[in-house]
Specification:
Blueprint lengths: L2 E6 L5 H14 L6 E4 L8 H13 L5 E6 L5 H13 L4 E5 L16 H12 L4 E6 L10 H13 L4 E6 L3 H13 L6 E5 L5 H11 L5 H9 L4 H21 L4 E5 L5 H10 L1
Helix pairs in contact: 3-4, 4-5, 9-10
Bound molecules: flavin-adenine dinucleotide.
Flavin-adenine dinucleotide (FAD) binds next to β3, β4, α4, α5 and β6.
């Protein structure tokens, strides 16, 4: 059975909290290895990740992995978060650079995720299993694709135990990425990040921002369904389940689902895989 993990974001309203609880309850049935919680960049959102992992850990009994992004943060702030997570008994961290929020001038004490990984190792030794981000279709700000691979390798050399990819819909991009970094000497597991398709226009907006390509054949078929949400959901589940099957058959060590705090679309994909 491949390792399954689910990603959530911190809810900010009571309604969103209820939605997260419902999703966590439903997805627990798939016995995930862990669930991760994203880290919103900047100021007041800092504490939400900690609250949310605590809730998922205590209320739902799930193994948790808080995301930690270093952009805009100081060494002292990051150290405090790390110490708190260690004291709470968490064993996993997803370490990221993050993006500088508009209007925030200072990038903080760290420039790249590799520096954050090194800092986590320096401060907490081997306590945490560290995952980092990987970009099979190249990070949108990379100088070029080959240097992006080298920068990915630097995160593993700094002490990361594994990676989760940005989502993608073309399995060849993943296989090529894995082959390329293996040739560079990177041996850690690289788990594909899977984005279930529910709302196509939202997905298109996300994808434009993060540099994920939606193949023309998928876009065309989605567009043909217009506002028919049911048809889009059904097609989305079929396309994403087929992608997952090809990834697992090709040797992917697991699947990490971007749930967007809803269980339905992720379950629809998993139902087709079982
Ligand atoms: P890095 O690995 O530091 O890379 C960033 C860019 O810098 C790349 O283009 C890289 O090629 C380049 N680079 C790296 N090192 C060097 C160097 N030495 N010299 C020159 N260039 C260099 N964002 C959030 O804010 N919160 C989250 O919770 C979150 N979770 C995520 C989870 C996953 C699985 C993924 C894939 C992404 C997530 N992100 C999150 C988004 C991520 O923070 C952004 O994509 C961000 O722009 C890059 O983060 P990184 O950790 O990949 O950065």
């Amino acid at each position: 059975m491949p390792a399954i993990s689910f990603e959530f974001f911190p809810p900010k309203t009571d309604e969103q909290r209820t939605q997260l609880d419902r999703a966590a309850q439903a997805l627990k049935a798939y016995a995930p290895d862990y669930v991760s919680v994203t880290f919103g960049a900047g100021g007041s959102t800092l504490s939400y990740t900690g609250d949310t992992v605590a809730r998922l850990h205590r209320t739902h009994g799930l193994e948790v992995a808080p995301h930690l992004s270093c952009m805009g943060g100081t060494r002292a702030e990051i150290a405090e978060l790390l110490d708190g997570y260690r004291a709470a008994g968490y064993r996993r961290i997803v370490a990221l650079r993050g993006d500088l929020p508009s209007g925030m001038a200072s990038p903080g004490d760290f420039r790249y995720a590799a520096e954050l990984v090194a800092f986590i190792r320096e401060r907490t030794g081997d306590h945490f299993h560290i995952e980092v981000a990987a970009y099979p279709e190249t990070h949108p700000q990379a100088e070029d694709a080959l240097r992006d691979l080298q920068h990915f390798k630097a995160k593993v050399d700094a002490g990361a135990n594994g990676a989760i990819t940005q989502y993608f819909f073309n399995p060849d991009a993943y296989f090529r990425f894995v082959d390329d970094v293996r040739r560079l000497g990177v041996g850690v597991p690289i788990v594909p990040g899977i984005m279930p398709i529910t709302n196509f226009s939202q997905l298109k907006r996300f994808s434009d921002a993060c540099g994920a390509e939606i193949p023309r054949w998928i876009a065309k078929r989605m567009q043909a369904h217009g506002d028919d949400a049911e048809a889009i959901r059904a097609l989305g589940a079929e396309v994403v389940a087929q992608l997952c099957r090809r990834l697992l058959e090709g040797g992917a060590p697991g699947l990490h689902f971007y749930t967007l705090n809803r269980a339905r679309a992720t379950r629809a994909v998993l139902a087709q895989l079982h």
